[in-house]
Design a protein that fits this description.
- The complex is a heterotrimer of chains A (about 325), B (about 240) and C (about 350).
- Helix content of chain B is about 40%, strand content about 25%.
- Chain B is of the alpha/beta class and about 240 residues long.
- Chain B has a single domain (about 25-50, about 70-235), classed as Rossmann fold.
- Chain B has a 6-stranded mixed sheet with strand order 6-7-8-3-9-10, sandwiched between helices. In chain B, strands 2-1-4-5 form a 4-stranded antiparallel sheet, covered by helices on one side.
- In chain B, a hairpin with a 2-residue loop joins strand 1 (about 5-10) and strand 2.
- In chain B, helix 3 runs parallel beside helix 6 (about 140-150).
- Chain C is an all-alpha fold.
- Chain C has a two-stranded antiparallel ribbon with strand order 1-2.
- Chain C is globular, with a radius of gyration of 20 Å.
- The chains are: A mainly alpha (about 325), B alpha/beta (about 240), C mainly alpha (about 350).
- Chains A and C meet through helix 6, helix 12 and helix 14 of A and helix 5, helix 6, helix 11 and helix 13 of C.
Chain lengths: ~325, ~240, ~350
């Protein structure tokens, strides 16, 4: 195994993944993607992709749907925004404090709900999210409520390109952190809990403990993304915490394939771009893009609950051709 | 023949459990299936009851094919199944459970008559009409499960492991009740762990091993069979 | 009898119910009887939505995120049935038709809700159940999320985002009860909710089909064994639950005009109730409707509108710390993993 393969293995990437990232990296210079509005779409897609990875980290592994995902993401954003507006703290530090705040809330929510059955925990996380959104709306003195909080931006430029690279980097970091944890001993416990609770318990795994670890990490990452959101768009309204935002990430994560981490990220780009095209191209038909969203989620749930990643694993992942196999899977490990 | 099972193959998903199982039961017979744990006795019954769809083979009841028609239709044809887990409605009273047993009957007076008969067979149930099924003891629940099965006025009653988890005294009373029912003209198919007792009360028996019928014959003969004695009785 | 009563008073259910009554009385003395009136109206209708949700949980094991959309369908159908009738009445006054027009609208909504529910089961849940029961609770939940997105935006696409409301169902002076003016619509909504709840109760307790629904919720295999046609019962349950939500939506059209996301609040509230009283507990959901309505009314009255998500959530979290299976206990097994 050469150094390149070793590095890839360390990062849980395949040559195909690297190629995908490289394409994304040069995309803003290739027409038609070099137009600012398309770069904005790409940024939105990358944000959803990163969110889908962090979301799938809980949904796909410990089988708990964090229905308050965007509320917690919004908490990270608001924390950072308020710190920079009221205290004058630079957003570059603020986003990490925001992430920490989101992590703490995730930890507390987990402490409360994660001993409950999966669906119960999902609904409780949703309530916490609703309460957070209610707070953000009503604490007008702090958040300016629905009027929106103006936030300083991360880069002093009107161009979108630096933001694009930053969010790509964030997406990659999110992926690497999540996939390394999943590949570790802790990750095995996650999978055991998600797949067979009873078996996990009899083999001495304390489900609540691992679930809380998982949930806290996922929420921390969400908070970090929230910081990006706040300081990219430059304005923050309680709408960021709305359930429909969570539904968007959820749909991408599940259509992409639960338990794969990369599936949601991979389909996020074509998916979000297509959705934006439908939305802007057929603006006389409002809601059509979301109807497609809903329909696709329903179809995937009924006919292919494993999503794109499962399809990929079953039909594309293992070609006979050795070069292609290397491209899709990376160098094999000798045991 | 009341029930004819021909070359039945069945299982769960890809896991095949039954291999070419054939069973015949005539009206008024008391037939048992015996076999070691995991031989497929319960699977046979669940397949006949329509809870499992067989992959191939035939199940004829009164000459009509009943495989693959769905559990609720099998009940309507006249087969009552008392499962090992009993599947009682735990938040309903004894009386309500019995009423549910008569779900497929429309005749109110017939339902009342059946219920009185069951209270005669199992007086304990009559004493506890309004108790919730979930709060009763194991033996009482077993009686209730059999009672519920009888409520539908079946032509064939299938009972899975009636003695499982019961004290010997209660086991004896459950067997007595089954014998009384057979004397009253009911056809019963019984699956039991308690081989000695089972072979002493039933007319005929099938020995199921690894999902295949190994031996079949009169219960008295099976009880003397060297192979049966070796495998089940340890002599 | 008194012994049992004292024991009940000391149980979690008893304590909460008594405390709620006490709170309601204090608030009524403090602010006036309209607190009680508002609680009764919203409570009755919330109970209808929550009972449907509890039914789906208990019988079908579906944690529905789409239930509010049947409420929305109810408002929509009532609006499109009632408005033409009213326009017709404006040119051709007829006291009789004016009397029954609201009833026609609500009945139409009930039928439409039932049809929508039955269709959902036939077209969505049944195919999914046939394919795989693996991870059913989570998958069906996500399915309902997709369905909710579909229906909300379907409304947006076809009927637009504007408010489609009515001023009132019944013309005429408000009714006076104990020196409080209550509009006829509100009074009727309350009476209707009580009638529907009672009818539902009698249906579940005494009829064959009602018993079969309860049987399915308690043991699915057992219900097959006694000859219950499971798929028919599932379709019927779904139709019943959705019809209740649609009736609630239609009856409250004078308060909540129809628009794409009108069902979301009903959904939140119904989930509050169901979690608070215990998943799948149908009887509890009836009581819970009034308790959560009281909580909502009190929050709006004393703290201000907009806080009605924050305060109930905080309270529910508190309750669940001490009683994870809800105050009345859950009928769905395995609320806790441990």
């Amino acid at each position: 195994m050469n150094a390149f393969d070793k590095l890839l293995r360390q990062l849980n990437l395949t040559p195909a993944g690297v190629l995908g990232l490289a394409v994304l990296a040069v995309l803003p210079f290739i027409p038609p993607f070099n137009q600012e509005y398309l770069i904005r779409w790409l940024i939105a897609a990358a944000l959803i992709a990163a969110g889908a990875i962090a979301f799938d980290f809980t949904a796909g592994f410990i089988n708990i749907v964090n229905f308050g995902f965007y509320a917690i993401l919004g908490l990270g954003g608001y924390t950072s925004a308020i710190l920079s507006v009221n205290v004058g703290l630079t957003p570059w530090i603020g986003v990490f404090i925001g992430a920490a705040a989101a992590g703490v809330l995730g930890f507390l929510t987990g402490l409360l709900t994660l001993r409950l059955r999966g669906i119960f925990a999902a609904v409780m996380a949703w309530f916490v999210g609703l309460a957070l959104m209610g707070l953000a709306t009503k604490m007008v003195w702090l958040t300016r409520g629905p009027l929106g909080l103006r936030t300083p931006r991360l880069f002093d430029t009107a161009s979108n390109i630096p933001y694009y690279y930053l969010i790509l980097l964030l997406m990659l970091v999110t992926y690497i952190i999540c996939s390394r944890v999943v590949a570790s001993k802790v990750g095995i416990a996650f999978k055991a809990i998600g797949q067979n609770m009873d078996a996990a318990k009899t083999s001495g795994i304390n489900p609540t403990y691992y679930r809380i670890i998982n949930f806290t990490l996922s929420c921390t990452l969400a908070g970090l993304l929230g910081g990006f959101y706040a300081h990219y768009y430059g304005i923050l309204t309680p709408d960021i915490m709305h359930t429909s935002k969570t539904v968007e990430v959820l749909a991408v994560a599940y259509i992409g394939g639960r338990g794969s981490l990369w599936g949601g990220a991979a389909i996020a780009f074509p998916f979000i771009l297509a959705m934006e095209l439908v939305r802007s191209g057929l603006s006389n038909l409002p809601g059509l893009n979301l109807i497609l969203y809903g329909l696709l989620l329903i179809l995937v749930m009924i006919y292919y609950p494993g999503g794109f990643a499962k399809f990929f694993d079953a039909y594309i992942r293992h070609p006979k051709n050795r070069a292609l196999n290397y491209f899709l899977n990376g160098a094999s490990v000798r045991t | 023949m009341l029930l004819e099972v021909n070359n039945l193959n069945a299982g769960y998903g890809f896991l095949q459990i039954l291999w070419d199982v054939s069973i015949e039961i005539d009206v008024g017979e008391f037939v048992c299936i015996v076999g070691p744990n995991g031989a497929g006795k319960s699977t046979t019954m669940k397949t006949i009851a329509g809870l499992i769809t067989p992959s191939s083979g035939q199940i004829l009841f009164k000459g009509e094919p009943i495989h693959g028609i769905g559990g609720h239709r099998v009940t309507r044809k006249g087969i009552a199944f008392v499962s090992e887990e009993m599947n009682l409605f735990t938040n309903m009273s004894v009386q309500e459970n019995l009423l549910m047993g008569a779900y497929i009957l429309d005749d109110k007076s017939l339902i009342q008559r059946r219920m009185n008969e069951i209270y005669d067979i199992f007086p304990r149930l009559g004493e506890r009409k309004s108790q919730l099924a979930g709060t009763m003891s194991g033996g009482e629940r077993k009686m209730l499960a059999i009672g519920r099965g009888l409520m539908s006025d079946p032509a064939l009653l299938m009972v899975d492991e009636p003695s499982f988890g019961l004290a010997p005294q209660l086991t004896a009373s459950v067997f007595d009740a089954l014998e009384t029912l057979v004397q009253g003209g009911l056809t019963i198919l019984l699956v039991e762990q308690n081989v000695t007792k089972t072979l002493s009360v039933t007319h005929r028996g099938y020995v199921l091993e690894n999902g295949r019928i190994g031996l079949a014959g009169k219960s008295a003969d099976l009880a003397c069979d060297p192979h049966v004695r070796k495998v089940f009785l340890g002599v | 009898m008194s012994d049992r009563f004292i024991r009940w008073c000391r149980s979690a259910a008893g304590v909460t119910i008594l405390l709620s009554i006490l709170l309601a009385v204090i608030a009524t003395i403090d602010r006036g009887p309209y607190i009680l009136v508002n609680t009764a109206i919203t409570g009755g209708m919330l109970a209808l939505v929550a009972v449907g949700l509890a039914l789906l949980l208990g019988v079908m094991n579906v944690a529905s995120f789409v239930h509010g959309e049947y409420f929305m369908i109810g408002t929509l159908v009532a609006y499109y049935v009632f408005t033409p009738l009213q326009n017709f009445l404006n040119t051709n006054p007829s006291p009789l038709l004016a009397m029954v027009a609201p009833l026609i609208a609500i009945l139409a909504a009930a039928v439409a809700g039932a049809a929508a529910g039955a269709l959902t089961e036939i077209m969505v849940f049944a195919p999914m159940r046939r394919r795989s029961r693996e991870n059913w609770v989570m998958n069906s939940f996500l399915l309902t999320v997709g369905l909710a997105v579909l229906l909300i935006n379907g409304h947006l696409l076809i009927f637009g985002a504007d408010f489609k409301g009515i001023v009132r169902y019944w013309a005429g002076a408000p009714v006076t009860i104990m020196d409080v003016f209550i509009s006829r619509d509100r009074l009727f909504a309350f009476l209707l909710s009580i009638i529907v709840i009672l009818a539902f109760w009698v249906f579940m307790k005494t009829t064959r089909t009602g018993r079969a629904i309860r049987a399915v919720s308690q043991d699915e295999t057992g219900s097959l064994m006694v000859g219950i046609n499971l798929s028919a019962i599932l379709i019927f349950t779904m139709a019943l639950g959705c019809s209740l939500a649609a009736v609630a939506g239609a009856s409250l059209l004078f308060l909540y005009p129809s628009y794409p996301t009108v069902g979301l609040e009903a959904l939140y509230m119904a989930w509050f109730i169901v979690i608070l009283v215990g998943l799948g507990n149908i009887i509890g959901a009836l009581t819970g409707g009034f308790m959560v309505a009281l909580l909502k009314v009190l929050t709006v009255e004393y703290i201000g509108s907009g806080w009605d998500f924050v305060v109930p959530t905080a309270l529910i979290i508190l309750v669940l710390i001490f009683k994870p299976s809800g105050i009345f206990g859950s009928e769905v097994r395995g609320v806790l993993d441990q």
